[in-house]
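>> received
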Amino acid sequence: MQTFYTDQSYNDINRQLHRRLFILYAVLAVLLGLFLWAMITRIEWLAMVSASLAGCFAIFFVDLFCMPLVRYRRLVRSALSGRSHDRAIEFVRTETDPSVVDGVTCRGLIFLGDPDKHGSREMLLYWDEELPLPALESGKTYTIRYTGKNIIGIQSEAA
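>> returned
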């Protein structure tokens, strides 16, 4: 079974997140230092501008650069330590549009599973867009390892 997430990838994500947080803290320290200096010297407009810049920068930087990594780290942690299931199921098709699942961009893959209470056999699982999608053949059976609805491993069944 080919698995896609390792402890090394989790550590790489953590290292990247720590670098981004260091940048955030360094810029905020400079802006808050400027704010304190402006408060001590009673330059009111500079204090207001530096405090506003610090707040805007923090919100912008965290939302744009840190939270996507936090969400992706959550996916990798779930893949490494969460409950996973192995199942041999038949591939049907790939959805055309990407989906955002728990903050991570994924591609929907449709498989034929067991019928549910409504009689539908289609089972939707999500493939991480950061990983290259293998060439899956429609109608072929694959052994899929998944946690939640995210695919964390795949193996082609021998014919």
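>> The chain has a mean pLDDT of 92.
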